[in-house]
Automatic annotation (TrEMBL):
Enzyme class: transferase
Lineage: Bacteria, Bacillati, Actinomycetota, Actinomycetes, Kitasatosporales
Catalysis performed (reactions): 3'-dephospho-CoA + ATP = 2'-(5''-triphospho-alpha-D-ribosyl)-3'-dephospho-CoA + adenine
Gene Ontology MF term list: glycosyltransferase activity; triphosphoribosyl-dephospho-CoA synthase activity
Highest taxon in the source lineage: Bacteria
Protein name listed in UniProt: triphosphoribosyl-dephospho-CoA synthase
EC number: 2.4.2.52
Keyword Transferase in annotation: yes
A Pfam cross-reference name: CitG
Keywords: ATP-binding, Glycosyltransferase, Nucleotide-binding, Transferase
Native source organism of the sequence: Streptomyces wedmorensis
Length: 262
């Protein structure tokens, strides 16, 4: 497989989106770089770069969002997840900080390679078309997220992708709105994260905390956006309950990836 500089650039932009979320402070319920091992968090993110580059190269070579491309992306994605697990110290320590990020970012990287000058709406629509295609080689085992999706009727990561990433578009709009209102970049990114948290049906949260935990995250984000709750107070509340809105963080990273291509 020939990986071009364009492919490497897309992969680097995707990783930078993840790193930007790592470095964002505050971010309610999510790991703070100052508290966790910042080098470890960045190393975990950068372990994904070769996989993302391979996805971009495969998409560019294939040239269209068909079943063959979907199957290849799935195989690369699973290999990339394994590489990330090794970078995080192995599966024995549980899901790493970027577990679940390969699915949304990988699809969007491939879509961006298919539409190099595409606007956010075109790239997310292409990614949605890819997500809707079957992957014949995908494992047929249930995951905690898929089980929560079935149990609670939530869209989950697959539903978000097949719908063309509405929450990535939501985050992109929130970023632009906050910037146009004069917000500094960290404030704009926090605004986008909270905008996603208000409505995302995060199956990771549903799995660990049920509908009540998900509502607590969504309602808290709305309160912060409305000015009725300080973001640090929401952060403390979520940490005390062990509520980790990782799905929202991954979708913010995806929005920052697309924003970095503009």
């Amino acid at each position: 497989m020939i990986v071009t500089r364009e492919d490497e650039g897309l992969a680097r932009a995707a990783v930078e989106g993840l790193v930007a979320v790592v470095e964002l402070t505050p971010k309610p319920g999510l790991p703070h770089a100052r508290e966790a091992d910042p080098a470890g968090l960045r190393w975990s993110a950068r372990s994904l770069e070769p996989g993302f580059a391979a996805m971009a190269a495969t998409a560019r070579r294939t040239g269209e969002p068909g079943r063959a491309l979907r199957s290849e992306l799935g195989a690369i994605g699973r290999s990339t997840e394994r590489a990330m697990a090794r970078a995080d110290g192995g599966a024995a320590v549980g899901p790493g900080p970027h577990h679940g990020a390969v699915w949304p970012l990988g699809l969007l990287v491939a879509a961006a390679a298919l539409a190099p000058r595409g606007a956010t709406e075109e790239v997310t629509a292409l990614a949605g078309r890819l997500a809707a295609l079957p992957d014949a080689r995908a494992p047929r085992m249930a995951t905690p997220g898929s089980a929560a999706s079935v149990r609670y009727g939530a869209a989950g990561a697959k539903g978000e992708a097949r719908a063309g990433f509405p929450h990535v578009r939501r985050a992109s709009t929130a970023l632009r709105t906050a910037r146009n209102a004069g917000a500094r970049e960290p404030e704009a990114r926090l605004h986008a994260l909270l905008a996603v948290m208000t409505t995302l049906q995060d199956t990771g949260l549903l799995h660990t905390a049920g509908p009540h935990g998900l509502r607590e995250v969504q309602d808290g984000a709305r309160e912060v956006l409305a000015g009725r709750l300080a973001v640090d107070d929401l952060d403390l509340r979520l940490r005390e309950r062990g509520l980790r809105p990782r799905g929202s963080g991954h979708l913010l990273a995806a929005a920052l990836f697309l924003d970095g291509l503009r």
